[in-house]
Amino acid sequence: MAGFKHLAVVKFKEDVVVEEILKGMEKLVSEIDSVKSFEWGQDIEGEEMLRQGFTHAFLMTFNKKEDYTAFVSHPTHIEFSATFSTAIDKIVLLDFPSVLAKAPASS
């Protein structure tokens, strides 16, 4: 197993300044030690029919589910979630133990 993942796929509301949300999210994960890694990206290839309006994906990795549980209940996460929730039009959340099918190539 390769840890525990928290994946959010998001469509932001039209009037949201996404850069401000991204700065807040990067600050959030830098302040909470249980987050092992954080990645995000904006869709540039998907056809509208396939992405259904979703534009951004956020992926956090934790060593184990208990670290994710600690993250969710952390006061900084709770505070940021209130801001994040008002910025999104729709969201898909998946929380799962990951299975490493192919390890990254070593450099």
Give an overview in words.
This protein has 107 residues and is of the alpha+beta class. The chain is built from four helices and four strands. The chain has a four-stranded antiparallel beta sheet with strand order 2-3-1-4. The protein is globular, with a radius of gyration of 15 Å. The mean pLDDT is 91.
Please describe the topology of this protein.
Blueprint: E1 4-12, H1 18-31, E2 37-42, H2 48-51, E3 56-62, H3 65-73, H4 75-87, E4 88-97
Antiparallel strand pairs: 1-3, 1-4, 2-3
Helix pairs in contact: 1-4
Q: Report how far the terminal alpha carbons are from each other.
A: 22 Å
The dominant shape is globular
Strand order of the largest sheet: 2-3-1-4
Given as residue ranges, the uncertain stretches (5+ residues, pLDDT < 50) are none
Structural class: alpha+beta
Q: What's the number of extended β-strand segments?
A: 4
Rg, nearest Å: 15 Å
Helicity range of the residues? 25-40%
What portion of the residues fall into strands of 2 or more residues?
Answer: 25-35%
> Kindly state the mean pLDDT as a whole number?
91
Q: How can the largest sheet be summarized? A: 4 strands, antiparallel
User: H/E element string?
Assistant: EHEHEHHE
So how many helices?
Answer: 4
